[in-house]
Structure formats: structure tokens, C-alpha cells
Amino acid sequence: MKKWMYVIGVMIIILVAILVGYYLFQNSSPKQEPRMQAESKNTVQEQNILKDNMIVNEISVSSVEKEKISPKATLVLEKYYEECDHTIKEYVKIPEEYVNKTKEELEELQEDWEVQEFSSSRVVLRKRMNSTCNEHFVIREKDGIIAVYQVKDNNEEVLKEETGITVEYLTENDKLRLEEGIRIYGEEELNSTLEDYE
Known about the structure:
This protein is of the alpha+beta class. About 45% of the residues lie in helices and about 30% in strands. It contains four helices and eight strands. The protein has helices at about 1-65, 105-110, 170-180, 185-195, and strands at about 75-80, 85-95, 115-120, 120-130, 135-140, 145-150, 155-165, 180-185. The chain has a four-stranded mixed sheet, with helices on one face. The longest helix is centred in the N-terminal third of the chain and has 63 residues, at about 1-65. The protein starts with a helix and ends with a helix. Mean pLDDT is about 80; it is low at about 30-35 and about 60-65.
């Protein structure tokens, strides 16, 4: 019986030693592992921050580079006529001397024009004119036919064309309107009005 007690005692001691060793191993490993994980996370975060800073620096450097006009850009010339409060737009191919110019360089080239919009693909220049645009017309009767006059500065009317449309078959109301002069703005409205009298 003494032998059995001795064997049981040794087994208990071995079991306790194993449990104590396991307990110590478990407590020491997790402390080191999270520390290592935290250190590796910090390193990864630092690397990410460095990468982000490099990207921001690259973006800052590239945004400092001035935008220049492309050879395929569209140029829009806007003329604002103060007397009639109209703006006439003209779309033209970009002139060679504008290609690869920055906004500042373009402003130096075009002192009379104001840069309204600037990108590599589209440039809008605007100019203020102290006059009336050339889109104003007056339709009148001249020698029995309908004539078109273009209104110039100071309301001067200059003959643009004689249409060949006779006034003899028009109503009295239409003849009276032509006598007073029918004021029209724009080529489209002019053509439409002339079609009504044909």
C-alpha cells in the first residue's frame, strides 16, 4: 500500500508540475504575442502613413505643374456687346501660338481678352465691346420689295440685301409693319420672318 501511495504522490506532483508549467507558458505567451502583434501593427501603420505622405507629396508636386493648352483644345471667343446686352460666341481651332501656354502666358498674349475658362481641352476668352452686335436687322419695304438692313453702331441702318419678295400681295397690316420697320435679332429669326413673307 505504501507503494501505491508513493506512486499516486509522484503522479500528483507530475500532474501539478505539468499544470503549473502549462499555466506559466500560457500567461507568458499571450503577453509577448500581443506585444509583438502591436509592434507589427504600429510598423504597418507607420509604413501606411509614410506611403500616404509620399502620395500626398506626389499629388502636391504634380498639382504645382501648370496646366497647358493642348493642340486639340477648343477656343471659344465670347464678345459681349454692352449696348445691346448680347453675347456672341465663336468656336475656333486653337491657334498654334496658344499651344502649350499656361493661363498666365495666355493672359499676357491676349491683353484685350479676359480668360473666363481655362483647361487643357477648352479655353474661353471674353471681350467687352462698347457697341451693338452685328446680329440686329430691320426689314423694310424698298422700291416695292422687301429689303434687309443691318443695324450698325448709333442705330445706322446699312442695306444688307434685297430679297426679291414683292410687297404688292401682302396685307395692309404687313405693309404697315414693313413701313415702320420690323426689328429682328439673329440670322435664324431673320430667315424665319422672311419665309413668312414668301
